[in-house]
Amino acid sequence: MPDSSPPLVRTALLMPLIHHFEEHGGNVDLLLADMQISNAIRTDFDRLIPVKAIYETIDEIATRLGDPFLGATVGRDMARNAMGPVTKHLTREQTVGNLLDRFLISVGSYGNSTNYRLENDGQNATLKMTRKAQPDANPAHPDALTLALLVEQIRPRVGQSWDPKNVLAVVVDETVVPEWLLPRSSLITGSKMGLTLRFPSLWMVLNQAYSPGDTPLGETNKEYGTLAEAVRSFCKEHMSDPKLDITKTARACRLHPKALSRKLSNEDTSFKAILEDQRRQFAIAAIGQGKMTVTEIALRTGFTQASNFTRAYRRWTGEAPSDARSKQR
């Protein structure tokens, strides 16, 4: 007889979202009470609960925070800060192929609700996640979290070869996937039964130097003579993050934000000036090369809206990016 028991997952998978909710002013005790989930999950990460409860709680967090991109945001933060379940097992893998192998090994230990399969036909590599049963709650945000976690782990390992035009993702709901993660042209609406991510097979063997976002800059960037140079490198790597700020950068430096600000001031600069300069340099070079659209350049430089990027570009150069590009024709 088929197994009629509900799919179960470990509560560890919910904790990054609980922490995010709490950091943004949410009342976790009230949330768990309303969702009829024991407060014990805050310390018992191995406790198994129905996946339906996970989906409903994540959906409720998104509603209470008013965040349409909750899943993607938390997935990105998990990837960049090497935080949370699954992600912590991935940081030492250098190639995309090794990363995905490790991901498949790790994710299976957190529940029995899904099956993952990695296929490679020599042209494209395809990672498929299939649910074992039709979900009775909305999986849109959980799938966006998984997609963001994977994309933000793959992108730095691919380096300059990364091009979203070569990526295809089949998702439950395109509206919960922000442009800073993948453009609409890379998305297809699928069913609630799973998630698919496809990219060029060549990326599987690429081996870019990779370190998680919270690796101490003082340890991994010994080739830099000053703290400002290390921060400059960090900003260059992470400038596509619209929420990149001195707090995240200070955490990577193992410094308090005020200490980082003071040390940079002693070097006659500031975090804001360094980040702005990195974004300006990239934008001007990309506009000149003409290979990316203005929207793509905006996203790569951390702007969620093209209009904000246009204003910044005009401040940097005295002209709009469209005007600068028209001069090249």
Question: What descriptors fit this protein?
Answer:
7 strands; 14 helices; 11% strand; HTH_AraC; transcription regulation; DNA-binding transcription factor activity; globular; H-NOX domain; two-stranded antiparallel ribbon; alpha+beta; 46% helix; 329 residues; Virulence-regulating protein VirS; Arc Repressor Mutant, subunit A
If helices are DSSP runs of H or I spanning 4 or more residues, what is the number of helices? 14
Q: Strand order within the widest sheet?
A: 3-4-7-5-6
* Overall number of structural domains: 2
SSE order? EHHEHHHEEHEEEHHHHHHHH
The name of the CATH superfamily of the largest domain reads H-NOX domain
Q: Work out the number of β strands.
A: 7
Task: Determine and state the CATH class of the largest domain.
Answer: Alpha Beta
Structural class: alpha+beta
For the CA atoms, what is the radius of gyration?
21 Å
What share of the residues lie within helices? 40-55%
* Overall shape: globular
Distance between the termini: 68 Å
Query: What is the level-2 CATH architecture name of the largest domain?
Result: Alpha-Beta Complex
Mean of pLDDT: 86
- Largest sheet: number of strands, sense, barrel closure: 5 strands, mixed
Strand content range? 5-15%
Write down the CATH topology of the largest domain. H-NOX domain
